[in-house]
Design brief:
Layout (H helix, E strand, L loop, with lengths): L1 E2 L8 E4 L2 E11 L7 E8 L5 E7 L3 E4 L3 E11 L2 E6 L5 E4 L16 E6 L5 E5 L3 E9 L12 E6 L4 E5 L7 E5 L4 E6 L2
Antiparallel strand pairs: 1-6, 2-3, 2-6, 3-4, 4-5, 7-8, 7-10, 8-9, 10-11, 12-13, 12-15, 13-14, 15-16
Length: 188
């Protein structure tokens, strides 16, 4: 059985009847009392982050997962159709597994599926950054770049993000799928 000495970033554990990944941890040895491990856990299904403290040496349940690369093909009424990059088999996956990142998926985007030992999908990890084109936004004016003012811009996937005033229609942007925010404009 594994214990807290096996902690590492990215490790997936079963905790409170749900699957969590360890995003951060720290072993603490106070001068008085027993040692403990302070950790930050992210729920794989909901994305919620929680802080938890484990006693040093406390047993934990490690979940073995396999990562497979799939390509997003298209959306249909039953969900999203993905294709295995190795076997070319297609499967339909429910929208809920993508979470908020589904707003930034465009056809032929590569995603990673985490599968447990029973071949059940645990979670889907979209790419951290995607490049999308602006299809609709208000025009910017010269001299508007001095302040940190933002304006809404509609992207080719239909998602709307706040961008700086100098962004125009037709510009390609780098978007962070974790936060849904603008990162930078991509030069041609």
């Amino acid at each position: 059985m594994a214990d807290t000495s096996d902690f590492r970033n990215g490790l997936i554990i079963k905790f409170k009847n749900d699957l969590y990944t360890i995003t951060e941890f720290q072993h603490v040895k106070p001068g008085k009392g027993g040692a403990f491990v302070r950790s930050t856990l992210k729920n794989l299904r909901t994305g919620r982050v929680l802080e938890n403290t484990f006693r040093s040496g406390e047993s934990i349940d490690i979940v073995r997962v396999e990562r497979r690369k799939y390509q997003y093909l298209y959306k249909e009424s039953g969900g999203y159709v993905l294709m295995d990059n190795e076997t070319y088999e297609q499967m339909t996956v429910a929208e809920e597994l993508f979470g908020e990142a589904q707003k930034f998926l465009k056809e032929s985007t590569e995603v990673e599926l985490l599968l447990d030992d029973k071949e059940q999908i645990v979670t889907i990890e979209p790419p951290i950054f995607v490049e999308l084109e602006v299809v609709e936004t208000e025009p910017g004016f010269r001299g508007d770049t001095a302040t940190n003012a933002m304006k809404p811009a509609k992207l080719e996937t239909g998602a709307t993000v706040n961008v700086p005033l100098f962004i125009n229609e037709g510009d390609k942007l780098k978007i962070d799928t974790r936060t849904g925010s603008y990162v930078e404009r991509i030069k041609n």
